[in-house]
Amino acid sequence: MTNTTRILYCHCQYAQAVPPEVKAAVLRQLCESGVAFDAVADLCELSARQDPSLPRLAAGGPVKIAACFPRAVKWLFHTARADLPLADAEVLNMRVLSAAEVTAALFHAELKPNLPPGKVTATDAPTKAAA
Amino acid sequence: MPLTTESTLRVVLYEGADAQPLAAGARFAALTALLEQGFAVTRTVAGGRVAPHSRGPLLVLGQFNDGHPPDLENSAGGSPVRFQDITGLDATGIAGAVEGVRADTGAARHGDWKPWFPVIDYDRCTNCMQCLSFCLFGVYGVDEQNRIQAQNHDNCKTNCPACSRVCPEAAIMFPKYKAGPINGDVVQDSDLGKEKMKIDISALLGGDVYSALRQRSDAAKARFSKERDDKKALQERQKCLAKLASAGDIPAEVLMSLPSPEEILRRAGEAKAKAAAALAAQPR
Asked: A75 and B173 in contact by Cβ < 8 A?
């Protein structure tokens, strides 16, 4: 992993969507490592709140995200008006990958962008709600 | 208070100069406890990169030497910054201390609402307005360009994925749902077929889901007026709605909590009118 790549971990706190043993093992590995990282309780909640941390997380350069499906993560950020950079974001899906696979990818030097490439950029985003 | 107006407390676990690092096990226990209470936590290390701070209160935790926080440069842009010495505290104690600061700062309390709401995949969405027309709870609206968007997230009925079933493009996700493609998994051609079949289910039930509900509700009401037996009427209503619930994977409690038939008609009419207006305003 380059020293400019950030790590974001989602605990998916408010559902059992991610196997508890997987997220616990990933978090434990992060805590035992010497790396800095951001951990959020639940990306869905932050997205619904349009939390200002999401634009900062999205705009801060290359990022690896341990969460769920890349398509869901892409649009959760978009919902908060915080489009992730398609070329600089890799999502590790804790719903389907093992903890070992997730941590290996998190700590690997290479970032493998895997967000679905699509037509939407910030300019396509829905704007402020109409009255 | 609307979800989007509440500030959230960001917690930073500081283990830099003038502070003692936590043991790995204690760090894991502390982070787990804080995440389970809904907090966002940043672990900082020298030279590591994390997200910059944004608006809202900030709490810095650390095992500070002599119990005093170091003279850290305040780069929080005017946001209130607090420090908490956690020397000698276990995970429960740390979580309690952070909760105290949260309450003191008036920051958002977490966990009162399960974040269940539709997330739209705009790569797939064709802006057909079927979701807006379908939803009785005012979750959907349009932006200034008449593009569909989920606007009132906390109006959504927890665990109900019904609107995703009516989307012809499988563009509506509920990331906490159990199965794909509604959970965000890749959409396959076969999934589109399935979604279309689910729309047909509502047709089989008598034109649309709401007319079926109205009929069921009317029948239940008639029985209720004759029998005057609350429990029996409720059981009958539950039985009648069970088929709908299983067909659309709609939680029974959502169906049981639907408003009166008259109110359903009124809301459905409103939703359809909003959808029609948005469609009419779209450029051809």
From this structure: yes
